[in-house]
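SEQUENCE-TO-STRUCTURE ENTRY
===========================
What this section holds: a protein sequence and its matching fold, both as plain text.
Tokens: labelled as protein backbone structure tokens, with as many entries as the chain has residues.
Question of interest: how does this chain fold, as expressed in backbone structure tokens?
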Amino acid sequence: MSDRAKSGLPPVGTRARLRHEIERFPHFLIDEGATGTVVEASATLIALRMDEFVPGAEEWDNELCWTDEDAAFFAEPGAPEERWVAAAFHEDVEVIEGAASR
């Protein structure tokens, strides 16, 4: 497990860049390098509002989301559920600007 996957929830306002292409089949695909801002962060949901329009993501307000339902794979064995979503988020994104430095 990478160190980035062990990080906690990002504060709302955190800026992030996708490490790789993300697919939310069959709805949309977002390219590697796309950027956005965290608009919600909890133990069950992290939402990243994308800077550029993403065709197909209109239903989700142009947000890429990580939920507790699809994040268990990325957590450390035995990690509490509240760390699962953060682990998945940090596996997929690079934080480029923390909320505190804005």
Observations:
- The longest strand covers residues 35-41.
- The two ends are 29 Å apart (CA to CA).
- The chain has a mean pLDDT of 85.
